[in-house]
Design brief:
401 residues; alpha/beta; Rossmann fold; 6-stranded mixed β-sheet; 15 strands
Length: 401
């Protein structure tokens, strides 16, 4: 069935296929593919759609991730709506392209299904691959299930292609926990998508009939204003992010807070602060502990670039203890652990009330964070609350007794 005839229906698919479906509904023009699991299934699904005539797109298989992002950059520069993706070390191999793509203001979209970098290179979720690019000028956020993955792709195109923004987007999901676990996903009526996501039209495409100059190498004196423009675009994207989420809710009937999801925080004294699919397990653990009278909650970061500093400050300052769950490596950082702690602590610096903030290295190497580990982390937070100070800044979950 051609995409233009699609009507609303419920399907059971995994996060990889949900991302492929989102690219199809976005009616992308160019797909740049290079396989590395766990994201490969997305490109397999898109190849099948193109072969079956469901999607009219140019499907290009690159010879490496570096070539893959180069193709995406060139296609976007020519005015195409582009979709690409990668995982783990593949994200790293393309690193040279991230700054030129955002610096030339090309809203390329990249699906990331996280996996651990080498070592150990496990097929599982660790966010270090995408987070290592977090300061390259790309919009970035994590989905916690297949439905959110589908929705976030459409929302990200809407934000990145806005003329006030014109920035590329990394739409991330946890390897295995989202990429390969199935869930119910509502695929919309195509009329809804047309209303929400208009056809893409870059204001300055490469066109021999209307010559313009694109390129990452410029005169030194041109650098500061160009960098400032990119910084302003990221800042101004915050209003566009909120507007896009609001309009998405009106059209599709699913409302997401663009920045933070709070779970059982109304009377919580200690909370987990995290991003990604481990939030699903966290909710079960919190429910079990709530039944035992423990006042624990969760705050999930949905968007990390642009970083919602004011929203994080307002949310986290309400609690006695914040336990930042890191599923990434930032060795030698302020916490000697992950990257989320530093930004949470910085956001709280100007707050009137300061909770105790501690960091938990959990789910490393792509492992699951199981219920007993959430219970253990909660005990550590409660102990800190009673003591009035943290025992130490960073705990490695599963390696302490």
């Amino acid at each position: 069935m051609p995409v233009m005839e699609a009507t609303k229906r419920m399907v059971r698919i995994n996060g990889c296929v949900a991302s492929a479906q989102a690219a199809k509904y976005a009616d992308v023009d160019v797909i740049a593919a290079y396989p590395i699991r766990p994201y490969t299934a997305t490109m397999m699904a898109l190849a099948q759609m193109v072969a079956n005539g469901e999607l009219d797109a140019e499907y290009i298989v690159a010879d490496s991730e570096h070539s893959q992002l180069s193709i995406a950059h060139g296609a976007a520069s020519a005015g195409a709506r582009v979709f690409t993706g990668s995982s783990g070390v593949g994200v790293q191999f393309a690193y040279e392209l991230y700054s030129p793509i955002s610096g030339s203001r090309m809203p390329v979209q990249m699906m990331i299904a996280d996996r651990t970098l080498d070592p150990p290179g496990d097929f599982g979720s660790e966010h270090t691959d995408a987070l290592s690019t977090r300061d390259m000028g790309w919009l970035m956020g994590w989905s916690c299930d297949a439905q959110e993955a589908f929705d976030n792709h459409l929302i990200a195109y809407r934000i990145g292609e806005d003329r006030r923004v014109l920035l590329p987007q990394m739409v991330c999901q946890d390897g295995f926990f989202v990429s390969h676990i199935t869930g119910d996903v509502e695929l919309p009526d195509m009329g809804q998508v047309r209303e929400f996501l208009p056809p893409y039209k870059h204001p300055y495409p490469l066109d021999p009939r209307h010559p313009v100059s694109h390129g990452p190498q410029i005169m030194p004196e041109q650098g500061p204003p160009l960098q400032l423009e990119r910084a302003r675009a990221m800042e101004e994207s915050m209003a566009v992010v909120e507007q896009a989420h609001e309009e998405f809710a009106q059209i599709f009937g699913r409302k997401y807070d663009p920045w933070l999801e709070e779970y059982k925080t109304d009377d919580a004294e200690v909370v987990f602060f995290l991003q990604g699919a481990h939030a699903v397990t966290a909710k079960f653990a919190i429910q079990h502990m709530r039944e035992r009278g423990i006042k624990v909650g969760m705050v999930r970061l949905r968007t990390i670039r642009p970083y919602p500093t004011e929203q994080v400050r307002e949310s986290l300052s309400k609690f006695k203890v914040v336990g930042v769950i890191e599923t990434n490596m930032a060795l030698g950082s302020v916490s000697s652990g992950g990257a989320l702690y530093a930004e949470a602590a910085a956001a709280l610096y100007e707050a009137d009330k300061h909770p105790l903030v501690m960091s938990f290295m959990a789910g490393m190497g792509g492992e699951a964070i199981v219920l007993k580990e959430f219970y253990w982390m909660t005990e550590k937070m409660i102990e800190a609350q009673k003591r009035g100070k943290i025992e130490k800044r960073t705990h490695w979950v599963g390696f302490e007794h």
